[in-house]
């Protein structure tokens, strides 16, 4: 656990962060422009992606996934588009600009844990090197967490409890 | 893989015993396709073929090569075919997780031409193949695949056998035209097509590479990324690490290999100390472990 001191509000046994998801209409929509590549590119900054990265539909379906093809640095990539499920969005976050007052307290943007939304998206194209995309890809399976989390955190009603008690033969008073 | 072949209606001479030559163009260049070409005719046409003054394409001027290609295309006693191997395919195969070397790609292409001509119904009995690699191994490989054909595999076959010289013209002219008419996939501004010969030593080719390098994408896909010529360029561009290129940890005698961490879901640029170690979700329950989902308190 990271115990770096950030501001006086921080409890001893944890860290506090914030994410500001502003609902400004000017937010950039990057749907169809988010790609997860099977490599680590040691570069941060703007890049003319659409001039160089030209995914093509192959017309082939594997396990119900429509396969796309592209290349990057000479490697053949095969991928597919995942549309985020209803009720979910993807966000590009950036460090929140720190107001002048807090700067004087020695808090730099670098170690702050306060974020704001820079762009949002509704789909991700994820790519495999050589392999066709499959429902058993770890990245694809990550989405399973969403319904699982829903089921785990859904409020339980009294009738659910009664139902469960009859299911398991346990009587709840 | 593009391909082009003579018209499908077969002339009568193809049912006589035939000979064929196979040669390649564009093996060395750092950019553009590699082309395999073949030329075939009946063995009874052999002497006439020798009189057509086909010579190794490299010794001929460009216009002369083109003229000879036009002549042989209109010659009803000659058949020909080409296999154009796209630079994207060359790069992709040579950089696959299990890499395929250029010799294998070459052999498959030549072998594919033999299969194609045989499938058309041409009675091939003798095939002459030019090679840069070991001729005997290559000959055995081809002979095993096509037992009805007698193969002659030789270095410099393009200057020894007129039928291979003819094939070299087919290949060379096709390659030159493919490069000349190349449509770059990339749409960035200030791109030009002064490729030069494509050979790494050609100043025009060097200048083109310099003009078209890109910090993230490397080069346009016309370039063969697997070529040694590219390596010094890549050192100056943004480094790219691939999962398939496993990194040996210092003192790897323990067999401990670090796998690159590339699969965590967080698509953030934040540099963690463990940046290069794969996200595993280890220590969490199976559900998370198999999905490589780890918990982040900071990104």
Automatic annotation (TrEMBL), chain A:
Listed GO CC annotations: ribonuclease H2 complex
Pfam family, one: RNase_H2_suC
One of the GO BP terms on file: RNA catabolic process
This protein's name: Uncharacterized protein
Organism: Aquilegia coerulea (Rocky mountain columbine)
Automatic annotation (TrEMBL), chain B:
Organism superkingdom: Eukaryota
Example of a GO MF term: RNA-DNA hybrid ribonuclease activity
Catalysed reactions, as listed in the record: Endonucleolytic cleavage to 5'-phosphomonoester
Keywords, ordered alphabetically: Endonuclease, Hydrolase, Metal-binding, Nuclease
One BP annotation, GO: mismatch repair
Cofactor: binding details: Manganese or magnesium. Binds 1 divalent metal ion per monomer in the absence of substrate. May bind a second metal ion after substrate binding.
Entry cofactors: Mn(2+); Mg(2+)
Enzyme Commission number(s): 3.1.26.4
Residues the entry annotates as binding a divalent metal cation: 23-24, 130
Residues in RNase H type-2 domain copies: 17-239
Pfam families: RNase_HII
Gene Ontology CC terms: ribonuclease H2 complex
InterPro entries membership: RNase_H2_suA, RNase_HII/HIII, RNase_HII/HIII_dom, RNase_HII_hlx-loop-hlx_cap_dom, RNaseH-like_sf, RNaseH_sf
PANTHER family in alphabetical order: RIBONUCLEASE H2 SUBUNIT A
Family in the record: Belongs to the RNase HII family. Eukaryotic subfamily.
Annotated function: Endonuclease that specifically degrades the RNA of RNA-DNA hybrids.
Protein name: Ribonuclease
Lineage, broadest ranks: Eukaryota, Viridiplantae, Streptophyta, Embryophyta, Tracheophyta
């Amino acid at each position: 656990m990271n115990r770096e001191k950030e501001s006086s509000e921080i409890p001893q046994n944890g860290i506090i962060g914030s994410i500001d998801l502003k609902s400004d209409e000017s937010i950039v929509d990057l749907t169809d422009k988010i790609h997860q590549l099977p490599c680590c590119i040691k570069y941060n900054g703007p890049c003319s992606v659409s001039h160089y990265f030209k995914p093509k539909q192959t017309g082939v379906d594997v396990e119900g996934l429509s396969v796309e093809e592209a290349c990057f640095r000479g490697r053949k990539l095969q991928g597919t588009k995942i549309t985020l499920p209803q009720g979910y969005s993807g966000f590009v976050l950036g460090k929140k600009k720190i107001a002048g007052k807090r700067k004087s307290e020695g808090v730099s943007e670098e170690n702050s844990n306060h974020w704001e939304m820079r762009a949002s998206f509704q789909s991700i194209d994820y790519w495999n090197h050589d392999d066709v995309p499959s429902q058993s890809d770890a990245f694809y399976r990550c989405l399973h967490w969403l319904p699982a989390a829903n089921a785990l955190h859904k409020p339980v009603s009294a009738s659910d409890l009664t139902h469960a008690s009859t299911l398991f033969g346990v009587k709840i008073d | 893989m593009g391909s082009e072949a003579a018209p499908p209606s077969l002339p009568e001479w193809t049912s006589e015993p035939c000979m064929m030559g196979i040669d390649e163009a564009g093996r060395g260049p750092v950019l553009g396709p590699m082309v395999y070409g073949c030329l075939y005719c009946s063995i009874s046409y052999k002497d006439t073929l020798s009189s057509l003054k086909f010579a190794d394409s490299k010794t001929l001027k460009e216009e002369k090569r083109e003229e000879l290609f036009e002549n042989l295309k209109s010659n009803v006693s000659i058949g020909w075919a080409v296999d154009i191997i796209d630079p994207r395919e060359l790069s992709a195969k040579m950089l696959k997780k299990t890499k395929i070397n250029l010799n294998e790609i070459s052999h498959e292409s030549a072998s594919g031409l033999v299969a194609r001509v045989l499938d058309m119904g041409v009675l091939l009995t003798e095939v002459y193949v030019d090679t840069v690699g070991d001729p005997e191994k290559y000959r055995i490989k081809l002979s095993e695949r096509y037992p009805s054909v007698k193969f002659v595999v030789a270095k410099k076959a393009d200057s020894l056998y007129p039928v291979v010289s003819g094939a070299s013209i087919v290949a060379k002219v096709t390659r030159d035209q493919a490069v000349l008419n190349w449509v770059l996939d990339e749409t960035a501004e200030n791109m030009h097509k002064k490729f030069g010969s494509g050979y790494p030593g050609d100043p025009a080719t060097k200048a083109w590479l310099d003009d078209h390098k890109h910090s993230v994408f490397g080069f346009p896909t016309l370039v063969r990324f697997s070529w040694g010529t590219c390596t010094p360029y890549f050192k100056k561009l943004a480094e790219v690490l691939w999962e398939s290129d496993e990194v040996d940890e210092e003192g790897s005698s323990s067999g401990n290999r670090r796998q690159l961490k590339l699969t965590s879901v967080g698509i953030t640029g934040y540099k963690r100390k463990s940046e290069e170690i794969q996200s595993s979700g280890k220590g969490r329950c199976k559900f998370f472990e198999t999905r490589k989902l780890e918990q982040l308190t900071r990104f």
